[in-house]
Amino acid sequence: MGRESLVLLGVNHKKTPLEIREKLALGGYEEPLNRLRSLRGLKEYHLLSTCNRVEVLFVCKEPEQMRAAVLDLLFAGRVSQEQLESCVYIYKDGEAVRHLFTVAASLDSMIVGEAQILGQLKEAYRHASEQKTTGMIINKLLHKAFSAAKRVRTETRIGASAVSISYAAVELGRKIFGDLSGKRAMLVGAGEMAELAAEHLVGQGIADVVVVNRTLERAVNLAARFKGHAAGLDELVEQLAETDILISSTGAAGLVLHKQDVASIMPRRRNRPLFLIDIAVPRDLDPEINTLDNVYLYDIDDLNSVVEMNKEQRDKEAVKAHRIVEEETLKFMRWLDGMEVTPTIVELQAAAESICRAELDKTLPRLNGLGDKERQAVERLASAVAAKLLHRSFQYLRAEHDCVNRQERIAVVRSLFGLNGEECPSADTSV
Amino acid sequence: MSHLLFQLSLAGYLAAAVLYTIFFIKQKKTLHPAARAVFCAAAGLHTVSLVARYVAAAHTPITSIHEIISFFAWSLSCCYLSFRWRYAVKNFGSFAVLLITVLMLTAAAAPQAILPLPPELRTWLLPVHASISIVAYAFLTLAAIGGLMYLIQERQLKQKRFGFFYHRLPSLEALDSLNQHCIGLGFLLMTLGMTIGTVWAFQLGGDRGLGWHSKIISAMITWLLYAGLMHHRFVMGWRGRQAAFLTVSAFAAVLLTLFLLLIKGGI
Which letter, b or e, does each residue of A313-348 get, where b requires 16 or more Cβ atoms within 10 Å of its Cβ? Predict the structure, then answer.
């Protein structure tokens, strides 16, 4: 019997740029889950699609073949074959389990420790189980992933620290504004970092995003992503009067915003606090701006120091979190390995049961004068003998052997008891 | 009876102060409900003790030094509890409860005997004037605590040094809206209290009028300072650091008025 493999393939934010992730993102779960149903080789499967990753998890017998088929079915025509090959990662068995647990525990997230991913994974699993595409292995695996993630969250403080620049920006924003919902953010320039920070801010309930860029077209495109609006660079100061948080990341060589500009709009803002984040190198915003009252200017180094502040603590927590993931992976793999011998054991028990039945049917009618009690005693005797005989072989299958691997042991037992269907020519099956 | 209740509430405030301080340092979330429950119980006991003293003295207990400080502490508790349901100002309780406890200890140190009320003070205007003014000062005190917290937090954010207080103090905006709330209410009540006080003074002194005592002059200056602060805040849009700084400075005048009130040995 061929061994079933657990396979996880996908793309994430670490290896794949946003442009490609955008193209690969699955619109919803229903339709792709249904399409996968046509692949007969997949025993169980599950999909996860978020803005940072698309992952497919499945159980099958021919991993290589299925990998190609699944990729073809889900992503054909969206990006070129080479692009797809270069960014897709594939994990099997233990690695797949470890990866899934790492993702669930938010150790693989763009912002390590953020809690959103677990909710997304649960949502994805709900779709898969409603569509009945998961079976015993994936059900167990996902439940273990949820509990591993919970362990990481409760046993470490990984979720409690600021862990990246954009998170640091949000954390500072919270110290200034308290609640970020209803605030207005402005992006100056459309760098990737700014985009990320903005994404995170929008996730915190920012009401409105204005994108200001030298080329208006890029601004319009980016603004559409955040459902905000665009403005030209010459409107910058005008727009600033209505803004609470500004993230600047232009490639400009000189300053974009001077102290005088900011000072001039503060009376119009009625001195509402203004939080300016400059992540451009060289800097966009005049460092002197920070001397103005109620204006807080942070550049990339300042933000880094916020991140650093939590780094040591975070590293310690990450080590702990990875240890938990490792433990849970080992536990699951032990269960999965045990699963492998289950069909053989069930078949052996069934075979023994049918032999006992056949022999009893032959013998019992010939024994006269047996009461019900005696008949039951004889039946029990037969099954006890069979069970005692089989017991050793079950032990042999289940045991942790170092010298003979489990596959071999299963093969030995199966051929010994003739479970493979092929009949040995010399065997006397009538016993 | 009222004395025993006072001692009990003092013990309650002390326990609450200890719990709030541990909570402030350790930031263990489980401690907070316990600290709050103890504080609410202490405030409840305090209320009962004031009622008991009112019954025993047959006049509103805001005449002697002990009574004024105790009533002031009670007003602080009530004002704090009145808005803590509306505004979540992180760790504000730790500061407020500490101050309340210090005031209670001071009140406990003052002579607690119930003094007979001089005949000229036997008017319903006195308790109304005094209690409204003290509640007003309580709100202004809370505003000053908030202002102080604002200045500390602001400094940390500006200098980008994130120490002990950065993690424990609330956001600037929360402190600023606390300031607005407390200054607004405090100023309104102070105006009301002073109006009643003026009416009472004219009733008492007849054509002698207010009789410019140092206390009255100081109260006038306090009122003018807060009127200026209100004007700047609501008309000229002074908020944040300037507002916090002004709040803390103007509070010096409140302290002076209270001090002048107390060295005269009561109303």
Answer: ebeebbeebbebbeebbeebeeebeeeebeebbebb
Same structural domain, A73 and A193: no
The CA distance from B22 to A1, in Å, is 64
Per-residue pLDDT tens digits for B196-239: 988 887 777 665 555 567 778 888 899 999 999 998 888 888 88
The verdict on A277 touching B (C-beta cutoff 8 Å) is: no
**Per the residue annotation, which of A51, A60, A87, A424 is the catalytic one?**
A51
Task: Examine the domain organization and report whether A280 and A256 are in the same domain.
Answer: yes
From B160, B171, B242, residue closest to A293, measured CB to CB: B242
Residues A105 and A200 in one domain: no
In terms of domains, do A134 and A197 share one? no
Asked if A301 and A73 count as a contact pair (C-beta separation under 8 A), the reply is: no
Helix boundaries (H) for chain B: 2-26, 31-57, 65-84, 92-109, 125-159, 164-168, 172-205, 214-234, 240-263
Domain that holds residue A32: 5-155
HSE, side-chain direction, 13 A CA sphere, residue B258 = 22
Q: Which residues of B touch A270 (CB under 8 A)?
A: 237, 239
Nearest-10 crossing angle of helices A116-130, A93-104: 120
Q: Give me the tens of pLDDT residue by residue for chain A, a chain 431 residues long.
A: 456 889 999 998 778 877 787 778 787 888 888 888 888 888 899 999 876 788 999 999 888 888 888 988 888 888 888 888 888 999 998 899 999 999 998 888 766 676 778 888 999 999 999 989 998 889 999 999 999 999 888 888 766 543 466 777 888 888 898 888 888 999 888 766 667 677 777 877 888 889 988 888 888 888 888 888 888 888 888 889 889 999 887 777 778 889 999 999 988 888 889 999 887 766 788 889 999 888 999 887 777 677 666 666 667 778 888 888 888 988 888 888 777 778 888 888 888 999 999 999 998 888 887 888 888 898 899 999 999 988 888 888 877 766 777 778 888 888 888 887 655 444 444 44
Final residue belonging to a domain, choices A301, A328, A352? A301
Give how far A234 is from chain B: nearest CA, Å: 27
Is residue A65, in this structure, part of any structural domain at all? yes
Q: Tell me which of A133, A155, A177 is where a domain ends.
A: A155
Question: How confident is the model over A41-91, as pLDDT tens digits?
Answer: 888 999 998 767 889 999 998 888 888 889 888 888 888 888 888 889 999
Q: Both A362 and A255 in a single domain?
A: no
Amino acid at A257: L
Residue A160 touches partner B, C-beta closer than 8 Å = no
Of B148, B152, B177, B147, which Cα lies nearest the Cα of B163? B152
Instruction: Give the pairing type, strands A229-232 and A184-188.
Output: unpaired
* Catalytic-residue membership of A356: no
Q: Which residues of B touch A (CB under 8 A)?
A: 153, 157-158, 160, 162, 166, 170-174, 237-242
Query: What is the number of domains present in chain A?
Result: 3
